[in-house]
Specification:
Among the domains are: 73 residues, Antifreeze-like/N-acetylneuraminic acid synthase C-terminal domain (Type Iii Antifreeze Protein Isoform Hplc 12, Alpha-Beta Complex), CATH 3.90.1210.10; 120 residues, no CATH class. Helices cover 22% and strands 30% of the residues. The chain is built from 5 helices and 10 strands.
Length: 283
């Protein structure tokens, strides 16, 4: 075969291989690009952020979100730095504006209180505090028990009274506070902060200083306000199933004996009735 022809064929084959390689690479790149979803970079937490934490630069990182972005997502670190956390944020979770206090309000518990509301601290123990289940976000009822002032006679006959004071109250925070005892020594005290209105804060403050209170845990989805009548100690020992009332005996019919009796006398074709008195009639 002609050497010139062989050279031309080999050159054409090499060129075809090179072109095939580049075409395959371009097509593969286009397929990869078409498969890669569109992502958005948002600000996320680099570690767990507890309620009341003031966010610093080291608490933030970025993450890519494919598809729809959360409504209140933050895209710039400066929009989150210096703001207080009003709800726990976990590591790797996107930081939302709704989970942060307004700009300039700082951190701590005060930043979590909505306008028009107050945080009222209540000193509790394991029983009063529902054994540690009264955690932030939970809902409780507040019960008060004691002897009403000026009702001493009732207190001796019926015992202490209990009444539901407040209902469906949100627990803002729960933790341990350090207070001093009578000797001036520090001691840990369990404290629960309840979110109440100003009027409820006055009622709760007076109740905690004068009487004994009890927190009752309730379902957060149960917002119905009940109307319990309250109760006293005497009712606890009352017989809820009293003995049935005995019925009156049925009346007995008394038949009174007749005072006279009649005898028919027949004399031939003549008939006549003769009446005679009975012994009871003679009496």
């Amino acid at each position: 075969m002609n050497r010139r022809l062989i050279t031309i064929l080999l050159t054409a084959f090499v060129i075809a291989c090179i072109c095939t390689y580049f075409v395959a690479k371009v097509v593969s790149g286009m397929a990869t690009a078409s498969k890669k979803p569109n992502t958005t970079t948002v600000i996320a937490a680099s570690s767990d952020l507890k309620l009341g934490t003031l966010i610093a630069k080291g608490d933030l990182t970025t993450m890519e979100i494919a598809g729809a972005v959360p409504k209140d997502a933050i895209f710039k670190p400066e929009d989150a730095i210096g703001r207080g956390v009003v709800a726990d944020i976990y590591q790797g979770e996107p930081i939302l504006n709704s989970r942060l206090a307004p700009i300039g309000s700082g951190g701590g518990l005060a930043a979590t209180i909505p306008p028009g509301m107050r945080a009222c601290a209540v000193k509790v123990d394991d029983v009063v505090g529902v054994s540690g289940f009264a955690t932030p976000g939970m809902r409780v009822d507040v019960l008060i028990s004691g002897n009403p002032p000026g009702d001493q006679n009732s207190a001796t006959t019926t015992g202490p009274k209990v009444k539901t004071l407040l209902q469906n109250i949100q627990v803002l925070s729960a933790g341990t506070d350090i207070q001093k005892d009578a000797q001036g020594k520090p001691k840990p005290v369990q404290v629960v902060n309840l979110m109440v209105t100003p009027d409820q804060a006055e009622i709760l403050s007076l109740a905690t200083s004068e009487e004994k209170i009890q927190l009752v845990l309730r379902n957060p989805l149960d917002t119905q306000i009940a109307q319990p009548p309250g109760t006293v100690v005497r009712n606890l020992f009352a017989d809820k199933n009293p003995a049935p009332v005995k019925g009156r005996p049925a009346p007995v019919a008394v038949h009174k004996a007749p005072s006279t009796y009649t005898i028919e006398v027949i004399n031939g074709s003549v008939r006549s009735d003769q009446k005679f008195a009975t012994p009871e009639g003679k009496q």
